[in-house]
Amino acid sequence: MDAQLTTNIKADDQPSIHQIRHGFEIGSYQLLISELTRAEVAKAPSICSIPSTPDWFAGFMNHRGETVPVYDLNRYLQILDGNTAPQSWVLLIDDHPKTVGVLLTQPPQSITDPVLLDQACGDLPDVIRQAAGQVYEHQERHWVEIDHHRLFLALKKQF
User: Fold this and answer.
1) What is d(CA 10, CA 12) in angstroms, rounded to the nearest whole number?
2) Nearest-angstrom CA–CA distance, 126 and 100
3) pLDDT tens track for 19-52
4) How would you classify the pairing of strands 141-146 and 29-33?
5) What's the whole-model pTM score?
6) Residues whose CB falls within 8 Å of the CB of residue 64, separated by 6 or more in sequence, listed in order
């Protein structure tokens, strides 16, 4: 799921280039993976929990023979209720050995040609605001670009 450019041929044979980004939702927050960041989705892997860690740290999973830390941002942000769908997806961000996983209730979305907005990121939880970048619009929804390095470094500091 690297950031992609696709080419379509129009009726007049002039190619048009589209930028495809990937976004994911944590509760009501729409987060956009940084441009050119490698990402992949895995369906319901086995995660090994670690005793004496915060409940929002799901544990570690094996991905292609590599150990990957997995975070439950819904639990961290206390976005839990009886109506929440099960988190049966893991979004894997970045290349090994820097890969991190995020539990999701639904797979990431393709965001085609997002429009950069000239505005602040709005009301976000502190840990997300620390990692927030620019704000984009796609299909009348606002997406906040996230620096995953800053986000997971801030979470690691809370152990």
Assistant:
1) 5
2) 20
3) 889 999 998 899 999 988 999 999 877 999 999 9
4) parallel
5) 0.82
6) 96
CA distances from 96 to 40, 47, 59 (A): 12, 17, 17
Task: Please state, in angstroms and rounded to a whole number, the distance separating the CA atoms of residues 130 and 78.
Answer: 18
Lay out the sheet containing 47-48: strands in order across: 39-43, 89-93, 100-104, 66-71, 57-63, 47-48
Rounded-to-integer distance, Cα 6 and Cα 14, Å: 13
> What is the predicted pLDDT for the residue at 119?
83
Confidence of residue 122 (pLDDT cuts 50, 70, 90): confident
* pLDDT tens digits, one per residue of 89-120: 999 999 999 999 999 988 999 999 999 999 88
Q: Which residues contact 127 (CB under 8 A, 6 or more apart)?
A: 76, 77, 151, 154, 155
CA-to-CA distance for 45 and 10, rounded, in angstroms?
41
